[in-house]
Amino acid sequence: MMTVTMFTIKTPGAKSTWDVRDILESEIKWTTDIDFAAGELTFKLVEVDEGFTPKNGDEVRFCWDHKKVFRGKIFKFDYDQSEVFSITAYDNLRYFKNQDSLIWPVSTISQRFTKAAKLAGVPHKVVDKSTHKLVAEVCDSKSYFDMLKDSFKATRRATGHRYFLYCNYGTVELRRAPFKRMKYYMGDGSYLTGFSYSRSIEDVANVVRVVRTDKKKKQQTSSTSKVKLTSAQKKAAEVKNTKLTAITKKGNSVERWGKLQVVEKAKDKANAAQMKAKAASILKSKGKQAHTLKLDVLATLNMIPGNEYPVKIKSLKDIGVGTKYLLITKATHTFSGTTDQAELEMKVRW
């Protein structure tokens, strides 16, 4: 029988460790996301007259069916008139929200991840190594998440490999998707209790204009011919001395969806080839409709972001989603009594 087999809270430096299984007031929710977010555990505890009060910074450990699930710290708690604590804890990926200023030399994401993890002060491990060398860059006043996000995107564009971060019971790991490709399927008659699917073009751009703004240098005037200009004259002179150079890239969906245009600024000295490449890159990333598939399942602990499952849902075949392996991008597990139910968000298109 599956159930909570360990749930403890301990204040750093304290001798006592509190077993809180018997004072749980509600279900336990565990949320993990492949897209640069800390793992989150939320739960409620009934107040007891034994001197125990949860505090921010307390360490939380949670195991389900004798398997390690979550290890992290309390970052928030609420307390109300019903004498119940509502608690939010995060795993060690939370410390990748710390901001810093760094200069990355030519290096791989494995090297950059290792440095960021050391600076964040968390246990870490490179599970899947990357050998692709990234160009040197300056990251000023960015979170470690944002620094690595840019590096991960560049690596994916160059190699086709998708890397992600996962906190494995306190140790932050660098993994490559799919981390595990499972053989047993989710769908009709297997784990599935419900689903929802949508396609959207609300955020699509199928026309991209990259614009460079060039301003002529002001001509020098002699001291004897200085004329005080009105604000309107200054504005007119500024417009006259400004030139816009644009490169436009169109997708093949304009006729079907209509013209959906975005404008991006080019660097000051960008040439036509660089502007064209930027427009093509933006069009590639923004030119596709968004596919969203959510599955409600009777879950196992392998149903976590980064793992792939074959999905078989007969009624989805009519709209072009046949049986295929899909990547889990976000998972919200709800542990209650002896059941683990989850809502899974799947990556339909890469």
Protein model, in words:
The structure is a single chain. Helices cover 16% and strands 42% of the residues. With 350 residues, it is α+β, with helices and mostly antiparallel strands. The mean pLDDT is 91. It has helices spanning 109-120, 144-159, 231-240, 254-257, 272-286; strands at 4-10, 18-19, 28-33, 40-46, 59-64, 67-79, 84-90, 99-104, 124-126, 137-143, 162-168, 171-177, 186-187, 192-200, 207-215, 242-250, 261-265, 290-298, 308-312, 324-336, 339-347. The strands form four sheets. Strands 1, 2, 3, 4, 5, 6, 7, 13, 14, 18, 19, 20 and 21 form a 13-stranded mixed sheet that branches. Strands 9-12-11 form a three-stranded mixed sheet, with helices on one face. The chain has a three-stranded mixed sheet with strand order 16-15-17. The radius of gyration is 26 Å and the shape is globular. The longest helix is centred in the middle third of the chain and has 16 residues, at 144-159. The two termini are 38 Å apart. It is built from five helices and 21 strands.
Write a short abstract of this structure.
The protein has 350 residues and is an alpha+beta fold. It is 16% helix and 42% strand.
